[in-house]
Write a structure and sequence with these properties.
flat; single chain; four-stranded antiparallel β-sheet; alpha+beta
Length: about 400
């Protein structure tokens, strides 16, 4: 038997067997359900429409398989003016204090109140935009044979528009993942393995506890609960340290000391969802703490770059070295990336243009739609940021 062809099949025997197994009347037994369940299949067993050649002419009920998709990482979006293709950021270089002259008074001498001490600044720039386009073709009447009514055709067009909207959302989400992955790789490159921009969690945890855990053994439930509570506390300590005005956790530009601080309200944290969920379940469920990570913009992320390798990035990053200029960076491959914390000004993007134009072909009775997106993706590793790795 098979309902996956255009037949009507008797199901009483199979249904009886399923019912008896489900209710304990008989023991579980190998059951062939291949002909019982109607499976969505690409093989068409009726005629095609004449245009797309993918929609059947034989119609019962039509199910429009689409639902709205809301992209992740939307907190990275920035506002900007419409003019120009270059953004500048003015950074203020730290000065030095002067001696107090109030007790250096000498008869016949004066204290010059007009000495000039000019403020020193470092100006950095963002250049360029990324853009993409596409084509959507909408037909006037050529698909009439594939639908039973105008309302059904309208549902198809509505579903198609939702599909296009979902596709746009995911493309923008992919760009946002690229922003975060590049920031992680650039911070790792700038850190050089000996700095303060990368935290090696297991190294620290083993040193603190006297353990010898690996990235595998730490995930044993007996070990993971204690580790997640320690991780939560460690991230809070790091967040508090980032709120101090200093040069720590940022790329330094030689000869231009820039002091920055990131208060909790300006801190963003992305964590691999596996760890954030464990912290929520094993850490916060035990003790409530109204502190930095409670007030920071903290979001769980299912994967960094590839859905098949959630904790891994493989990126050759855009990168600046200590003279503030774009420099060549080597490819970076990291596994066991737990999270990243950064100032809100360290990562972002702005959509300069997001529009759809249309061109009508009256002779052929169809309309082409051309979506166009122009976006600027931004990283600044001179802002505070810390990468958390399970090593």
């Amino acid at each position: 038997m098979s309902v996956n062809v255009m037949n009507f099949e008797q199901a009483a025997t199979l249904l009886t067997s399923l019912h008896q197994q489900a209710t304990g009347q008989t023991a579980i037994t190998p059951t062939d359900e291949s002909g019982f369940v109607s499976m969505a299949q690409a093989t068409l067993r009726a005629g095609y429409d004449p245009i797309i050649n993918s929609i059947s002419q034989m119609i019962g009920e039509t199910l429009i398989a689409v639902r709205p998709y809301n992209a992740k990482l939307t907190g990275l979006e920035k506002t900007a003016t419409e003019w120009g293709g270059i953004k500048r950021k003015i950074n203020f270089i730290e000065g030095t204090p002067e001696d107090n002259k109030a007790y250096d008074l000498v008869d016949g001498a004066s204290i010059d109140p007009f000495v000039v001490k000019k403020p020193k600044v470092l100006e950095t720039h963002y250049y360029g935009r990324d853009m993409y386009s596409d084509i959507y073709t909408l037909f006037d009447y050529q698909l009439d044979t594939a639908f039973s009514s105008s309302s059904e055709f309208a549902r198809f067009i509505s579903g198609l528009m939702q599909h296009f909207a979902n596709q746009r959302e995911q493309w923008l989400e992919d760009m946002r993942r690229g922003i975060v992955s590049n920031f992680i790789a650039a911070k790792y490159t700038a850190d050089g393995g000996t700095g303060d921009m990368v935290v090696h969690l297991l190294t620290e945890y083993n040193a603190a506890t006297g353990g010898s855990f690996t990235s595998t053994t730490i995930k044993d439930p007996a070990n993971f609960a204690g580790f997640t509570r320690w991780l939560y506390a460690r991230m809070n300590t790091l967040a508090r340290m980032m709120s101090e005005r200093s040069e720590k956790y940022q790329q330094r530009i030689t000869g231009k000391p820039i002091m920055r601080h990131t208060p909790a309200a300006d801190l963003k944290a992305y964590m691999l969802a596996e760890y954030k969920d464990m912290i929520d379940a094993m850490g916060l469920a035990v003790t409530y703490n109204d502190n930095y990570l409670k007030t920071a913009d903290t979001e769980g992320i299912s994967y960094w770059q590839s859905i098949d390798d959630a904790d891994e990035i493989q990126v050759t990053p855009a990168y600046i070295d200590t003279d503030g200029a774009i420099a060549a960076a080597s490819p970076v491959t990291l596994t066991d990336v737990v999270g990243v914390m950064f100032d809100r000004d360290a990562c972002g993007y702005h959509i300069y243009r997001d529009k759809i134009t249309a061109q009508r072909n009256e002779r052929a009775s169809y309309t082409n739609m051309f979506p166009l997106v122009e976006v600027q993706l931004m990283n600044d590793i001179t802002e505070k940021g810390i990468v958390l790795i399970l090593d």
